[in-house]
Amino acid sequence: MQSEVLKGSVDVLLLSVLRTGEAHGYRIVELVREQSEGAFDLAEGTVYPALYRLERAGELASRWETVGGRRRRVYRLTRRGRRELVRRRREWEAYSRAMGAALA
Amino acid sequence: MQSEVLKGSVDVLLLSVLRTGEAHGYRIVELVREQSEGAFDLAEGTVYPALYRLERAGELASRWETVGGRRRRVYRLTRRGRRELVRRRREWEAYSRAMGAALA
DNA sequence: GGTTGACACCTAGTAGTAATAGGTATACAT
DNA sequence: ATGTATACCTATTACTACTAGGTGTCAACC
Fold it and tell me: Residue A90 phi/psi, 5° resolution?
């Protein structure tokens, strides 16, 4: 079923909210909630490991930042990440279309 | 993320292709392929366990049949299965809408 | 001064799906 | 006899997402 689409739902969301600029983990959770109109409220235990995974895969890069005494790790898309975002979004669309056809 | 939606993608496909009548496992694989316009080619190792799971959950019922010397197990939706199909389809739609919003 | 809540990160363990990669058996055509 | 389509079954594995904790900073309030 080529189910990286399924498995990668969180991944594509993370890549997508970073498309307009960098953000740290906690903020990424908020962005996903906002941009999905409240539908996706990702647990931190889901997001942090996913971010490491994406960084290990070369799709994200990060740096440490300190703001108001609080440490943050700020993530941004790499070139590969941007490419992957496009690919995964297309995959999502194909998947979505197929589900639509099957469930019609 | 309420990810039964994700996890249940195969389940809702199986329920859906049975909405117009009963079918056996091998045929169900074909129906999913046809109705998804070729996009979903489920492995038998995915489908059979899923059918057992759905039967154990009371969403499907089955009977044995012999046609041309070949044994088949024919599945049909139960009332609960039909209800679940409606519920899962709605869930899929909400999920799909949210993904659409987030990836827009 | 202590408590609460928001901010911010981290990780070990678990449940569960889907894929992999086999296996068995019948019928029919070549 | 061999191959192909039909038809079912299952053990193992990889991987995701979730659960359920933990650490620490800062600001506000009582």
Answer: -60, -40
Query: Pick from B10, B43, B92: which is nearest to A103 by CB?
Result: B92
Task: Give the torsion through C-alpha atoms of A28, A31, A36, A39, to 10 deg.
Answer: 70
**A10 contacts on B by Cβ (under 8 Å):** 1
Digit-coded pLDDT (tens) for B22-71: 999 999 999 999 999 999 999 999 999 999 999 999 999 999 999 989 99
Q: Considering only CA atoms, which residue is closest to the C1' of nucleotide C28?
A: B68
Q: How many domains does chain A have?
A: 1
Kindly state whether residue A104 falls inside one of the protein's structural domains. no
To 5 degrees, how large is the angle CA A84–CA A39–CA A95? 45
Count other Cβ atoms within 10 Å, centred on residue B60: 24
CATH number reported for the structural domain that contains residue B15 in this entry = 1.10.10.10
Could you list the residue range(s) of the whole structural domain that residue B22 is in?
A: 4-103
Question: What amino acid occupies position A57?
Answer: A
- Asked if residue A63 belongs to a domain, the reply is yes
